[in-house]
């Protein structure tokens, strides 16, 4: 069935380093969303990408949707300790639901 | 004002018991969801309701029964709780296929 693969599972970085998490699907996605979940918290919606090749920025965060709409990435420039958490992508095919990736847990060392 | 509120926040109960989790959203969204997050943080959809109508019913044991009295409420009742039901259960809502707003979660521990 439909599945969204997300890598890496974990990433440990020094504060100030960059971070990227990737999502891949074997079939074309209609759109993709990104969420952040702080430790002990709940997922919080960050952004939705719809168009092929779309790039969106939110301060130090850059989101990309691949040309074939089968992959997406979230890049954080110059990480800060406030970036700690698990980042999830959620991809939609032509159904009424999103399939969540397994998440990338980011740890930032001060 | 909390946008999506679910109660209780914590639930510790014995195997075999029946329990309910309540969820309410004040965002005017037309779709509500229940998600289960296991110990490995994997988020799995269980149910989705659109304007009180069940639209997604994943492969979930029939011990789990959702109820939506109106489009602002979606409750989850679980019968005959098992150890494997221990997880964090999140309620969420969205407008059409926009971003989800999640509740703060209910941590269920079955002992």
Compose a concise summary of this entry.
The complex is a heterodimer of chains A (110) and B (111). Chain A has 110 residues and is an all-beta fold.
Helix tally of chain A? Answer: 0
Based on secondary structure, the structural category of chain B is mainly beta
- How would you describe the shape of chain B? globular
Largest interface: A-B, 22 and 20 residues
* Beta strand % of chain B: over 45%
Shape of chain A: globular
Largest sheet of chain A: 6 strands, mixed
Largest sheet of chain B: 7 strands, mixed
In whole angstroms, the N-to-C terminal distance of chain B is 34 Å
What structural class do helix, strand and pairing data of chain A support?
Answer: mainly beta
* C-alpha Rg of chain A (nearest Å): 13 Å
Q: Topology as H/E string of chain A?
A: EEEEEEEEEEE
User: Total number of β-strand segments of chain A?
Assistant: 11
What fraction, in percent, of the residue positions of chain B are helical? under 10%
User: Which stretches of chain A are low in confidence, meaning pLDDT under 50 for 5 or more residues running?
Assistant: none
Structure explained in plain terms:
With 110 residues, chain A is mainly beta. Chain A is built from no helices and eleven strands. In chain A, strands 2, 4, 5, 9, 10 and 11 form a six-stranded mixed β-sheet that branches. A five-stranded antiparallel β-sheet of chain A has the order 1-3-8-7-6, with no helix packed on it. In chain A, strand 9 and strand 10 form a beta hairpin. Chain A is globular. Chain B has no helices and eleven strands. In chain B, 0% of the residues lie in helices and 57% in strands. In chain B, strands 2, 4, 5, 6, 9, 10 and 11 form a seven-stranded mixed β-sheet that branches. Chain B has a four-stranded antiparallel β-sheet with strand order 1-3-8-7, with no helix packed on it. Chain B has 111 residues and is mostly beta strands.
């Amino acid at each position: 069935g439909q599945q969204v693969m997300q890598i890496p599972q974990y990433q440990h970085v020094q504060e100030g380093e960059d971070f990227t998490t990737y999502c891949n699907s074997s079939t074309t996605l209609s759109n993709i969303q990104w969420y952040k979940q702080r430790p002990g918290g709940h997922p919080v919606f960050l952004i939705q990408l719809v168009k092929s090749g779309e790039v969106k920025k939110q301060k130090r965060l850059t989101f990309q949707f691949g040309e074939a709409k089968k992959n997406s990435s979230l890049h954080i420039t110059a990480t800060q300790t406030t970036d700690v958490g698990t980042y999830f992508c959620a991809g939609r095919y032509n159904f009424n639901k999103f399939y969540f990736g397994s998440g990338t847990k980011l740890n930032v060392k001060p | 004002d909390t946008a999506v509120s679910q109660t209780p926040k914590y639930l510790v109960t014995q195997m075999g018991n029946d329990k309910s989790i309540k969820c309410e959203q004040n965002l005017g969204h037309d779709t509500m969801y229940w998600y289960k997050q296991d110990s490995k943080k994997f988020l799995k959809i269980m149910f989705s309701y659109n304007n009180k109508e069940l639209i997604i019913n994943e492969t979930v044991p029939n011990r789990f029964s959702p109820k939506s009295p109106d489009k602002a409420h979606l409750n989850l009742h679980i019968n005959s709780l098992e150890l494997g039901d221990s997880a964090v259960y999140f309620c969420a809502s969205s407008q059409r296929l926009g971003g989800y707003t999640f509740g703060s979660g209910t941590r269920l521990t079955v002992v």
